[in-house]
Predict the structure.
Amino acid sequence: MQIRASAAEDFPQIFTIINEAAQAYRGVIPADRWHDPYMSAAELRKQIDEGVTFSLAEDEGRVLGVMGIQDRGDVALVRHAYVSTTVQRGGVGTRLLHHLQNLTHKPILIGTWADASWAIGFYLRNGFTLLTRDETARLLRKYWSIPDRQVETSVVLADRRWLQSFGAMGA
């Protein structure tokens, strides 16, 4: 398996992996936050235009997973982390996450749905810390552009760099 930066021609594969893997959210996240497709092509394009850069894990030309990172000044955000349903729990997500961690020296924050226990567990196993409800709301409003309803139903996890830099005093 190789990890590489995405190119413009990878857009269809990124779109497909995100929407295939996001089916896990159906019936789990609040119904008013579910869309079909989960992420439209226009929204994905907007995310890329707003600075989300994707890395792809691939094997023999087949994209196995995608994960984005977005520079937000004093922190980096991991965005849109998805692995093909055929290879989940096989180390693809961990390899992508470690790759992104090596791309920046900035503290990393990750937002996900509060009811996505599998995603939260993945990040906890990879050394991230679940932040308090108050801290989550503050950080989501500061660094993400999401509706209030999504703020209410999401969590934020932070890496050790964020905890060391901002944990005691806030970002």
Q: What stands out?
A: The chain has one domain: 2-166. The chain is about 40% helix and 25% strand. Residues 96 and 102 are 10 Å apart (CA to CA). Helices lie at 11-21, 41-49, 92-103, 117-125, 133-143, 148-152, 160-167.
